[in-house]
Amino acid sequence: MASAPRKTPVSPRGRQRLPTAGSDEKRERILKAAETLFDRNGYANTTIEQIVQALGVTKPFVYYYFRNKQEIFETLCWAPTEACFTVLDFAADDPRPAHEKAIDGLQRLIAATIAHYPAGFFPYREPQAFSPAYQKASRTLARQFYKQFCALLEEGHASGHFHFRETRITAQAACSLPGFLYNWYRPGGRLGAAEMVAELTELASRVLGLQPAPSSSFSSPASSAKPARARKKAATRPPDRPA
Q: Can you spell out the DSSP letters for the chain?
């Protein structure tokens, strides 16, 4: 069953009252121009005037859709915030075991963070820019996410698929990996987006203490004896003499 739509703290509050033909496109133009400026200059050093100049429009054009700079910033940030914190909203009849859901959720969290570059990194870079209403809504989503994630970790731990000591610490440590991306990630780097998602998902899986599947960890006595004999032989071989 799909989850109910979540209330957003950043519904449009400009002069626009009813949607018009092309209004969504115009709002997106404003958001895109603002996103570039926020990324380049930061929140404090970006002004409505700069957004207006980047668009080649007048201030009333922007104020028709958004009340102020903060509303633009929060609108940009809400989509990635919601996308990241709802990755564990699986269907009620999802038959997968807890450890598979947890790893899938981590992968989707990392992918959503990267897909929403650079707005997805703004909450990490400038948490002081948000209104109390936005912060409250974001914390509500985060609490629900960690409640779901911790439940999956504990179930996976009980089944023997995860190995860790403190559930909450482990959950936060694993989920902090995509959070640190804002310090250094840039599109077009050595690793592509898909490769970055795979790399960070593997690292996060290690944090959870993901245990290998029985089939991958099984080895026959013959196969395990050979390396042991080789190590023993190497240990008893006299050192090479200098030439």
A: -PPPPPPPS----SS--S--TTHHHHHHHHHHHHHHHHHHH-STT--HHHHHHHHT--HHHHHTT-SSHHHHHHHHHHHHHHHHHTTT---TT--S-HHHHHHHHHHHHHHHHHHTTTGGGHHHH-GGGS-HHHHHHHHHHHHHHHHHHHHHHHHHHHTTS---S-HHHHHHHHHHHHHGGGGT--TTSSS-HHHHHHHHHHHHHHHTTPPPPHHHH---HHHHHHHHHHHHHHHHSPPPPP-
